[in-house]
Amino acid sequence: MTLNNNIKIFSGSSNPELTEKICKYLNVPVGGAKIERFPDGEKIIKCEDDVRGKDCFIIQSGCEPVDANIIELLIFLDCLKRASASRVTAVIPYFGYARQDRKDEGRVPITAKLVSNLITTAGADRVLAMDLHAAQLQGFFDIPVDHLFAEPVLTKYFKSKKISNLTIVSPDVGNIKRAARYVEHLNGELAIIHKRRINGREVQCGEIIGTVKGRNVLMCDDMISTAGTMCSAAKLVKERGAKKVFVGATHGLFCDNAAKAIADSPIDEIVITDTVPLKPEVKKIANLKVLSVSDILGEAIKRIHKNESISAMFR
What we know:
CATH topology of the largest domain: Rossmann fold
CATH architecture of the largest domain: 3-Layer(aba) Sandwich
Number of helices: 9
Order of helices and strands: EHEEEHEHEEHEHEEEHEHEHEH
Shape: globular
Helix content: 25-40%
CATH class of the largest domain: Alpha Beta
Strand order of the largest sheet: 10-9-8-11-12-13-14
Radius of gyration: 20 Å
Structural class: alpha/beta
């Protein structure tokens, strides 16, 4: 695949490996940029390629360190806009601060809206994101947002395993729509776990709606953070008679002691994508499988550049 020289793809420092894979898919070089710091820690970004009149894409995940990566994205957007790029697209494989998308109690911020405003103000003409924590985040932007899903990559892998007697388990009520799509593609049954969040790090899984006894279970979610939800759910379905337990998720954040929790859990295999880079301790998880979403992101970038349909990718 060869694109014209009117496209430029740049990488932030959050996930350069993913950017390289995307550029390889598109057969274009990674744009030249120098990212440094002043002695006091301030970021300096200098674009080393001529971008005047170019269609530019900056790839940056809002993963740990979240604040630093988001600020870097904002500076990069401003840099490209001031260098007279004709259009700048923020490609955000993992959108940080997406979980605070409403006021569920008094005197709290809506950080998802705040970050959306900052990205627009910094100069983004459009946003390309993958598996947002909530689909309504697209409405927080006043610029076009293309929302991609890692589901085709994950379902293709689980189809190849030919798992018999499969039940798709939604680890909480808010994930039912995602689980239902997996049921449709993998021809399994559906079960739902009632979850109660104790605090930001602890969850308690209560009852199961549906049948898991004597069946193989696949639990799907958009992200794995502390792994508390998945590990508690895996323990619960095992106690209720499930055979093998598989987990599929898009964003593998693995915060705190998540790697150890998964290693100590009854999960037989955990499958994630490369939207965020893996920490060294996570790479040591024996039953971990990492799939790449570079082709999906690359195809979407190509279609945006050529003004073609994105939704056609998922038909």
